[in-house]
Amino acid sequence: MSRSPRPSRLGDRLPAFYCPLERDLLHPEAKHLEARAVEWLDAFAIYPDPVEREWGLATHSADFSCRIVPEGDPETLLLFIEWNYWANAVDDWQDSGAGGADTAAVTEHGLRLLRTIEDPDAALLPDTPMTRALDDLVRRSHARLNPFQLHRFVGGTRDWLLGAAWQSAQADAGTMPSLNDFAAMGSLANGTRFSLTWSDAARDVRLPADALCSPALSALTDAAGFIVSADNDLFSYDKDDHLDPPEVNLVNVIAHEEDCSPAEAVPRAVALRDRVMDLFVALRDRLARGADPHLARHLEGLGRYMAGSIAWQSRAPRYASPRNRYALPLDGARFALRYADGPSGAGAEPPLPALARWWRHLDP
Question: Strand, helix or coil at 340?
Answer without folding.
Answer: strand
